[in-house]
């Protein structure tokens, strides 16, 4: 998996990818440990908030309102950002976004860029496009640096190297930074990364960032982070290029009162991010900060998501990753199984929609619909509801003649008639007979089933059908006049 | 001890145990669900036994089949609609409807209103809105509708309770099932680690993503075995069928049993 870009258009189906990854004991141990730790931290800081549910509801309403008037808020952002000396670029899709960014970097006169952790740049595989244009990108977020040096792919929205443990990171640093004597303590690794990155911060003239929020009212770009490396990228370069999905806009500065409470608590289990930066245009009067500031506003199928009344709540996501940590499926497979930089429950609904349902069609089924994601979502995205909605789209696309569709219709036909249902119950008892074996206790069990149902008997037995259905028992009892009486 | 619901004699099943509606006996319409009807008749019998022991009358509308959950959750929404209509036709006019399956009740509460709205059928939407408040999951009926904890049961076994996701999150059953279990005479109730963790059943998920489902199941069976319980109980036979399948395959000797069958236990 590592090395190959996470591209939904070419990725294996989720069950196939999961099957491969679940054989990696180390990966599963790392993912479980990391998600356990983050979940415990989150539970602690969420638990101390008496108004957490009200905050979630505020977050939901805020995001829903923003999406309803997105066009107006985007234009407001453009006006205010431009008034402060910034330049706005509009990109309809990934291709256009890459072209704009590559062009801007070239125009800045640099053949290197320092990057702040950004899922949007991962979504459009910006690094590959930069490299193809002869530009070297340096990831400065520690986890993204590990991914880049390890020729790996991010497996989590917030903690992209969550699938690696300290020893594996040490091996990557030793090899890629040419440090054969590197120690294995967190301090050793942080020191190595610091030395490696400081040089880039001071040398590279152009920075590329994503955005957590774009503030329409002020034209500000908000970036939150834990390490301070992001702030280096915002402060030191002469040219700053921010790329953001159009869903990142918020109406007013004071809306951050809600969002900057729910985001860090949900994402990293912190009360507040250590570094919260809001960047407002350029200031030519002072010799400080970037001289040129560009924001690329990218659609890349987001308006098509917005057009779907049931799917559009997906865009309310503020990329905290809490659903990934809580998801029992993600916790078994890790993020790479989803074949997309957006993994876990949010990835299972976002990715197929960003692909306009042309790819990633197994992702809506990569969930047991347990609802743990919905429970922790800081803006109350009803992920199970959207998953079911997208499953319907997949079914409708698949047409009426697929084996599953035929079986489902047959089942529905049976359930639509009491007579047919009774007949099916009787027929089931006869049909299963060749498969039933007696166990030591004299009970009948099925240990093998054919076709798709074979997935059940891989690791489970199935009890044989009882000789009498409940309704047969109930009716026999009524007939004998025993109902309600003593037994 | 729940004073209102306390029986006069702990071990006498003929004594009626009543809830806050003292003196009020209900006409309960049982929606057994398609899979309990076919695969788990003992659960249905136990529900009847408990309700009748409490003095209520149980009716079984014969035309009932399936709530449509499997179709709806797998993406076959169009196929689910006639099953919704069938459910309404069978249970309209019911005083109350009891369902020994959290996920089927969750299907109705979470999706039926939206389904009728999408269908643009205002009459059906009104019928669903009137019917849904009368529909209860079995343990919920006992704890919330009847206000009971002690239903006069006897079950001398070591048991652990599995909270199904639909009961826990969609229905908000809370610790209702555990309160019912704690009041059972003779029972030793042991808590499972990771109570809120999904067992990995998920309907068609168990076959569509058999490998991941198996991995989740392995975690759950490990947790069940770690309790040292003889049996694992839940409000959903769907989860239990999945858990039991692995417990039997591994010859653990640990059984699964629906909550109703424990509450029906008599000395």
Helix content of chain A: 40-55%
- What is the overall pLDDT average of chain B? 93
Which two chains have the most extensive interface, and how many residues on each?
A: A-B, 68 and 73 residues
User: How many strand elements of chain A?
Assistant: 13
Strand content of chain A: 5-15%
Structural class of chain B: alpha/beta
Distance between the termini of chain B: 20 Å
Structural class of chain A: alpha/beta
CATH architecture of the largest domain in chain A: 3-Layer(aba) Sandwich
Q: How many distinct folded domains of chain B?
A: 2
Q: Tell me the helix content of chain B.
A: 40-55%
Largest sheet of chain B: 4 strands, parallel
Q: Provide the spatial order of strands within the biggest beta sheet of chain B.
A: 2-1-3-4
Number of helices of chain A: 22
Query: Can you tell me the CATH superfamily of the largest domain in chain A?
Result: NagB/RpiA/CoA transferase-like
Question: Mean of residue pLDDT of chain A?
Answer: 96
Distance between the termini of chain A: 63 Å
CATH fold topology of the largest domain in chain A? Rossmann fold
């Amino acid at each position: 998996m590592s090395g190959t870009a996470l591209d939904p258009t070419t990725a294996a189906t989720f069950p196939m990818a999961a099957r491969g990854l679940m054989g990696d004991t180390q990966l599963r141990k790392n993912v479980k440990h990391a998600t356990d730790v983050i979940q415990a931290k989150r539970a602690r800081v969420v638990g101390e908030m008496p108004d957490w549910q009200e905050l979630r509801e505020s977050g939901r309403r805020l995001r829903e309102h923003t999406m309803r008037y997105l066009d107006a808020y985007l234009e407001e952002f453009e006006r205010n950002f431009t008034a402060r000396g910034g330049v706005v670029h509009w990109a309809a899709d990934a291709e256009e976004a890459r072209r704009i960014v590559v062009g801007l970097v070239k125009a800045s006169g640099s053949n290197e860029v320092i990057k702040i952790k950004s899922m949007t740049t991962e979504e459009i595989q910006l690094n590959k496009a930069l490299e193809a244009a002869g530009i070297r990108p340096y990831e400065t977020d520690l986890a993204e640096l590990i991914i880049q040096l390890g020729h790996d792919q991010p497996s989590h929205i917030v903690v992209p190297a969550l699938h690696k443990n300290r020893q594996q990171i040490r091996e990557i640093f030793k090899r890629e930074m040419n440090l054969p004597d590197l120690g294995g303590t967190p301090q050793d690794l942080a020191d190595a990364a610091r030395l490696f990155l400081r040089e880039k911060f001071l040398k590279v003239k152009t920075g590329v960032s994503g955005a957590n929020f774009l503030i329409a009212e002020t034209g500000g770009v908000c970036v939150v982070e834990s390490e301070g490396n992001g702030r280096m990228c915002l402060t030191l370069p002469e040219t700053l290029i921010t790329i953001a999905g159009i869903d990142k806009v918020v109406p007013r500065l004071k809306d951050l009162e809600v969002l900057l409470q729910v985001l860090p608590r949900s994402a990293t289990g912190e009360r507040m991010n250590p570094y919260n930066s809001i960047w407002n245009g350029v200031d030519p009067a002072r010799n400080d900060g970037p001289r040129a500031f560009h924001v690329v506003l990218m659609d890349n199928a987001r308006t098509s998501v917005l057009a779907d009344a049931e799917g559009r709540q997906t865009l309310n996501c503020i990329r905290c990753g809490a659903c990934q940590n809580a998801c029992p499926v993600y916790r078994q497979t890790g993020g790479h199984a989803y074949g997309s930089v957006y993994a876990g429950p949010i990835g299972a609904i976002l990715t197929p929609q960003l692909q306009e349902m042309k790819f990633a069609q197994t992702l809506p089924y990569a969930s047991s619909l347990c609802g743990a994601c919905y429970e922790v979502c800081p803006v109350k995205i009803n992920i199970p509801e959207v998953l079911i909605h997208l499953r319907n789209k997949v079914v409708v696309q698949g047409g009426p003649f697929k084996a599953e569709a035929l079986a489902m219709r047959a089942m529905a036909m049976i359930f639509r008639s009491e007579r047919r249902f009774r007949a099916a119950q009787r027929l089931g008892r006869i049909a299963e007979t060749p498969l039933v074996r007696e166990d030591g206790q004299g009970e009948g069990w099925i240990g093998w089933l054919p076709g798709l149902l074979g997935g059940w008997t891989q690791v489970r037995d199935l009890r044989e059908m009882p000789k009498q259905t409940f309704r047969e028992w109930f009716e026999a009892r009524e007939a004998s006049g025993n109902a309600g009486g003593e037994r | 001890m729940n004073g209102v619901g306390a029986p006069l004699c702990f071990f006498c099943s003929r004594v009626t145990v009543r809830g806050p509606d003292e003196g009020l006996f209900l006409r309960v319409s049982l929606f057994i669900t398609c899979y309990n009807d076919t695969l788990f008749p003992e659960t249905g019998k136990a529900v009847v036994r408990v309700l009748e022991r409490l003095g209520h009358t149980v009716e079984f509308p014969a035309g009932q089949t399936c709530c449509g959950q499997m179709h709806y959750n797998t993406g076959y929404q169009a196929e689910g609609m006639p099953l919704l209509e069938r459910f309404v036709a069978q249970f309209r006019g019911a005083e109350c409807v009891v369902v020994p399956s959290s996920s089927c009740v969750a299907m109705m509460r979470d999706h039926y209103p939206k389904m009728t709205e999408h269908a643009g059928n205002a009459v059906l939407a009104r019928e669903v809105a009137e019917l849904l408040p009368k529909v209860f999951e079995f343990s919920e009926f006992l704890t919330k509708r009847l206000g009971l904890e002690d239903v006069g049961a006897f079950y001398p076994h070591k048991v652990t309770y599995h909270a199904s996701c639909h009961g826990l999150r969609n229905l908000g059953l809370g610790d209702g099932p555990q309160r019912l279990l704690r009041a059972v005479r003779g029972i030793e109730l042991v808590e499972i680690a990771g109570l809120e963790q999904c067992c990995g059943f998920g309907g068609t998920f168990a076959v569509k993503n058999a490998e991941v489902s198996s991995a989740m199941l392995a975690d759950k069976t490990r947790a069940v075995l770690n309790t040292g319980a003889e049996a694992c109980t839940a409000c959903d036979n769907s989860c239990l069928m999945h858990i039991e399948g692995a417990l039997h395959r591994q010859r653990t000797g640990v059984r699964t049993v629906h909550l109703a069958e424990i509450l029906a236990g008599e000395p």
